[in-house]
Design brief:
Number of domains: 2
Distance between the termini: 19 Å
Order of helices and strands: EEEHHHHHEEHEHEHHEEHEHHEHEEE
Structural class: alpha/beta
Strand order of the largest sheet: 5-6-7-8-9-10-11-12
Radius of gyration: 19 Å
Helix content: 25-40%
Number of strands: 14
CATH architecture of the largest domain: Alpha-Beta Barrel
Shape: globular
Largest sheet: 8 strands, parallel
CATH topology of the largest domain: TIM Barrel
CATH superfamily of the largest domain: Enolase-like C-terminal domain
Number of helices: 13
Strand content: 15-25%
Length: about 325
Amino acid sequence: MSRTLSLQHDRFELTHPFRIARGVKTAADVITVAIGEGDTIGRGEGVPYPRYGENVESAIAAIEEVRASIERGIGRDTLLTAMPAGAARNAVDCALWDLEARRAGRAVADMIGEPAPRRIVSALTVVIDSPEAMARAAASIAHAPLIKVKVDANDPEAQIKAVRSAAPDAALIVDPNESWDRNLLESLQSLLAEQKVSLLEQPVAAGEDEWLEGFTPQIPICADESAHVAADLPLLKRRYQMVNIKLDKTGGLTAALKLAREARQHGLGLMTGCMVSSSLSIAPALHVAGLSDFVDLDGPIWLRKDRAGGVTDEGGFLLPPAAGFWGTP
């Protein structure tokens, strides 16, 4: 049976600015892909990320280049070589998973041999601001079991202390988004331990992290911008203790599952993360989240209006989307 492919740019406004070390976001710009066979349609979403040289136009162009192959019936395994890892391939791969599940009358969880997504602890994020504003933001979510703290190199000590003071019981992930250098990271080791930070995410720039091979941190360091696909693991295991798996980096659920399973074989811990996105990005990521030690999938929580039937947050616990939203018949 022949297929049809449609794709479009969708924009979701945020409730308030999402500020990290490399800039500020006020809306989530995504690519939505729909692949149809007869009356059955599978959907997927990708978030082009400028940090990786992507934008909406380039993602659309990348999908258009393989449109004929997709409409002729290309499978997910072939897609891995037909398109490079990134947001465009993610959107197509997840649409194919959804289509396959609906045509087979089976949930994606059954197809991959894992339990169905369930209520799960997922970090709520405090973005960069003055320490006083960050303390207020943290106080409003202090009941959450896990908080991610976005910091930069200006005054991370004050930022971290402000959040910890306002949320004394939450587990903390600190994320500098590549903004620190070696001296700053080394000087903050005692502080991170004293503030009971559970995880430090990508403190130094990808490509400038070679020295981590000889560094013993006081808390685990998780690769994010340095970690994309399973082929990165031999290098990553010498520098990091964990990897953050994002489907927009791996280029879809297919490659994300491979990365997760092989990372465990290399003795690395797992985190599942996301871009600021709609629930259509989060639904497939939940299948990796179930395999992970830490989960940070609060992207849709920042939207003024998410897709109908999407995930919901209950005090730092993420609930799966409604039945039939993605990956279920």
